[in-house]
Design a protein that fits this description.
Layout: E1 2-6, H1 13-22, E2 26-31, E3 44-47, H2 53-60, E4 67-70, H3 76-86, E5 93-96, E6 110-111, H4 123-142, E7 146-150, E8 154-155, H5 170-176, E9 181-184, E10 190-191, E11 194-195, H6 196-206, E12 216-218, E13 225-226, H7 227-238, E14 244-247, H8 249-253, H9 258-267, E15 272-273, H10 276-281, H11 291-304, H12 313-330
Parallel strand pairs: 1-2, 1-4, 2-3, 4-5, 5-7, 6-15, 7-12, 8-11, 9-14
Antiparallel strand pairs: 10-13
Length: 332
């Protein structure tokens, strides 16, 4: 079975590529070839700009695939382009959406695929919702064979804290240098973090799944942690107990508009994901990597190559600024 990944070398898609190859799929990557090849001869590469219609049509004009997966579609323009390119050329199109599209704040803490999609805090999430709506209309009106997948906070080659790091090493360096780190709220809100390898298990089970057409799924771990526990695990991976400063999310948002979406539109809300649906469609799916173990492996991955251990001074400046401002009003 031929599977095309648009993207394919990112934090989530790399694990999905490995999983699809292990399952016997013939995997193709479409990208601009900027990221160094990490799959050597296992994956067939198609060079094209996924955001340019002419480039896509030229690269794919005589090709068809059993499954197409777009990991890097964010706007309705991306979906409109894919509908033009892949209509009639694939038996399944999988759109990687986001669990941040679910209702914020949630009226019920247990999230299922029937939870409404509404996020007034984050444009990123509203754009994903609009993409989903466009695809479902195409499915209903034109029989376009779409499946929607909504990852939540998923990691392997990123450090999944709410504030301080992502694809950089800043938070680890900060903890090791005994500098304070920000934890939003009182740190007791509930969250789920999923290792990319676990996500890939459920995802691969949907590839070519005829009954998954027209359906949406989230794929997450069943491990539920507080943010205090998450930062404690990151500290353990860094080899040092973190100095956590608890600051209200509303206060943090005053200093950076991005945090309105990141916190109020996502991570500051307690959510519990019900994975019954993915387990029904993909029997045997089970996330098995606890965060405390997975984040250890992630930190070791960064440390294997010094060039990965990037310290972003702007992250340090932001955290210091917010902590200093909060401590001044707290001391009054």
């Amino acid at each position: 079975m031929k599977v095309l990944f648009i993207g394919g070398t990112g934090n989530i898609s790399s694990a999905c590529t490995r999983s699809a190859l292990a399952a016997g799929f013939e995997v193709f990557h479409l990208n601009r070839g900027i990221t160094p090849a990490i799959f050597k001869n296992d994956v067939q590469h198609i060079s094209a700009d996924a955001y340019d219609l002419d480039s896509m049509e030229e690269a794919l004009k005589i090709k068809s695939f059993d499954v197409v997966v777009n990991f890097i579609a964010y706007k309705t323009a991306d979906i409109a382009r894919d509908l033009q390119v892949f209509f009639g050329k694939t038996a399944q199109y999988i759109f990687i959406s986001s669990a941040s599209a679910y209702q914020k704040p949630p009226l019920h803490p247990v999230i299922t695929e029937s939870t409404p999609l509404k996020n007034p805090y984050w444009q990123y999430s509203r754009d994903k919702i609009a993409c989903e709506e466009m695809l479902m209309r195409a499915c209903q009106e034109r029989d376009f064979p779409v499946t929607i997948v909504r990852p939540s906070l998923t990691y392997e080659t990123v450090i999944p804290v709410a504030i301080g790091s992502w694809d950089d090493f800043t938070i680890i360096d900060r903890i090791r240098n005994k500098k304070p780190v920000i934890v939003h709220g009182d740190g007791t809100s509930l969250w789920t973090i999923t290792h990319s390898e676990d996500f890939a298990k459920g995802f691969t089970g949907l590839l070519g799944h005829q009954q998954a057409i027209g359906h949406a799924f989230h794929i997450t771990s069943d491990e539920i942690l507080t943010w205090n526990q998450i930062y404690e695990a990151v500290g353990a991976a860094a080899g040092m107990e973190p100095d956590m400063v608890h600051i209200p999310s509303d206060f943090i948002c005053r200093f950076d508009e991005f945090q309105v979406g990141n916190l109020l539109g996502d991570k500051a809300r307690s959510v519990i994901f019900d994975n019954t649906k993915i387990k029904t469609f993909v029997p045997g799916f089970l996330a098995t990597i606890p965060f405390k173990k997975g984040i250890m492996e992630t930190v070791r991955w960064f440390e294997k190559k010094p060039e990965r251990m990037v310290i972003r001074e702007k992250n340090n400046i932001f955290m210091d600024k917010v902590i200093d401002a909060y401590q001044k009003i707290s001391d009054r």
